[in-house]
Amino acid sequence: MIYKKDANFPYPLLTNTSNSYDGCNFILDIGLNENTYDYIIQIDYDIESYFIKKLIEEDKARLVLVVQSKDNKFYNLKLGQNTISIPKNRISLIKGRTTIQLLIQSKEEINFKENNDLNPFYGSIKDQINVPKHSVLGFSNSVILDGTTSKPLDLFEKKLDPNLKSEVRIDLGSETIIINYKNEDYQFVDSQICSRLNNIYVYMGLQKALCRFVATYGQDGDEGVDLDEIDLPTEGLDMKLYNLMKSKMIKSVSLDNMDEVICSITDRIIDKYTSAVRGLYTNGN
User: Fold this and answer.
1) What is the mean pLDDT of residues 111-137?
2) Confidence of residue 185 (pLDDT cuts 50, 70, 90)
3) Less Cβ around it within 10 Å: N or C end of the chain?
4) In sequence order, which residues have a C-beta less than 8 Å from that of residue 1 and are 6 or more positions away?
5) What is the tens place of the pLDDT at every residue in 52-98?
């Protein structure tokens, strides 16, 4: 099954929202490719608990990929495995929406005496915590894939349009944020740090896209959008924004906290832009 909200367990659990572990997260990111016969799921995950990672390395726990489409399907992953192929005749990603999550399951009874990643609250009792075989030790964020999305990993597109009436124009497509440039020079193509200098346009694009997201999914009279309460987006771009915010543990988005949300989902994009500009200024002087 997919765990979408905190579940009650009789022992500490590693999740991105639980307080059981001290500063530890379990982050999952998914990419999707396909060929004639198979869907190829690209898996990128980060387990920040040394105790849990050691259990997997010692074969005392396993990683289980849960793919929820019309049915729940479970795939055991080997340590370090980052792709899995699923025959198209076994699962549908085209007509329906698919949710993917990574679980950690115990392969034997586990004692938490050596688990130094736990919240200090458990310090005096952790040697008494025994988790049975086949129990869930942790679960990642859930990632939602829409099989109809032709560009599941792309959020931005860049286009050149000499006929623009402004230097730059931001358009919102069905699946991407499109940055239109009147002149190629505005892309800083002759700079080795062009990607960081373009961050200011990325910020502009995210602002526009999130404004539309709030207007579309916010209820009349509400200050913003509670991501745990809304129906799953059907628009490709909105789905990508939703997944991105959920992966960064964003609970809600509104006009008031939009800048904070962008800072979180881009890992402080303005700071990177400012550092790039300062570097040019320093080198120029």
Assistant:
1) 92
2) confident
3) C
4) 66, 68, 72
5) 999 999 999 999 999 987 778 899 998 888 999 988 888 776 444 78
| C-alpha to C-alpha distance for 53 and 71, rounded to whole angstroms | 29
Crossing angle for the helix pair 236-247 and 199-217, nearest 10 degrees? Answer: 100
What single letter denotes the amino acid at residue 20?
S
- Domains of the chain, with CATH numbers? 26-146 (2.60.40.10), 156-284 (no CATH)
The alpha-helical segments, DSSP class H, found in 171-229 are 194-197, 199-217
Q: Is the pLDDT of residue 153 over 70?
A: no
Read off the pLDDT band of 269 (50, 70, 90).
confident
User: Please, what is the Cα angle at 95 between 173 and 145, to 5 degrees?
Assistant: 60
Residue 169: CB atoms within 10 A of its CB come to: 15
Q: Which long-range contacts (CB under 8 A, 24 or more apart) does 240-245 make?
A: 240/149, 240/152, 240/155, 240/175, 241/209, 241/210, 241/213, 242/144, 242/213, 243/143, 243/144, 244/155
Q: How many CB atoms lie within 10 A of CB 121?
A: 12
Q: In sequence order, what are the residues at sequence separation of 6 or more whose Cβ sits closer than 8 angstroms to the Cβ of residue 192?
A: none
Of 171, 177, 172, 149, the closest CA to residue 239 belongs to 149
